Fold this sequence. Notes:
Layout: E1 2-5, E2 8-11, H1 12-25, H2 38-45, H3 49-61, E3 65-68, E4 72-75, H4 88-102, H5 114-121, H6 125-138, E5 141-144, E6 148-151
Antiparallel strand pairs: 1-2, 3-4, 5-6
Helix pairs in contact: 1-3, 2-3, 4-6, 5-6
Organism: Nonomuraea typhae
Domain HTH gntR-type: 10-78, 86-154
Pfam families: GntR
Amino acid sequence: xxxxxxxxxxxxxxxxxxxxxxxxxxxxLKAGQALPxxxxxxxxxxxxxxxxxxxxxxxxxxxxxxxxxxEGSYVGPRDAPQIREPWEFEKIAACLVEGIKRGEYGxxxxxxxxxxxxxxHGAAKKTVSAAVxxxxxxxxxxxxxxxxxxxxxxxxxxxxx
Length: 161
C-alpha cells in the first residue's frame, strides 16, 4: 500500500513515520512520551506489524524515537523523563499505597491475599504479584513466606510519598 507524494508513491512505512513526525511537530507527542503500541499503530494506519516496525526503525535511525525492550518506544531524546500510562500492576500498587496512607492497612497488618487482590482488581496472578513486588521494593510492605504480606513501619516507607 502506498500513497502519492510530490515525487510519486510514498511507502506506507514512510507515511507512518511522517505522521509520527507531524504529531511531534504539532505537540501531540512530547519528548519522553510513549508512542502507541505496535498493535495500536497497525489498527490506526491499517498496516502490518512489519510495516509499523520499519517505520519505527526509520525514526530510531533518525534519533527521533528510542525503544526500551519489553516496554515500548518513546519520543526522544533518551534522557527525557518518560511519560506513559501506568501499567496495571502499577495501578494496583498505587491503590494499595493509598489504602496504606489512609490507614485502611496499619503497620504490621496483613494485606489482602493474592487471590483477594486478583478478585478485587480483576487482574492476573502475575500482575498482582508484580504489584506486591513493587511495594516490597519501595519499602511499603514486607512478606513473610507462607504467612502473608504486611505493611511496613512508616520509617521504611519511601520519603517522596
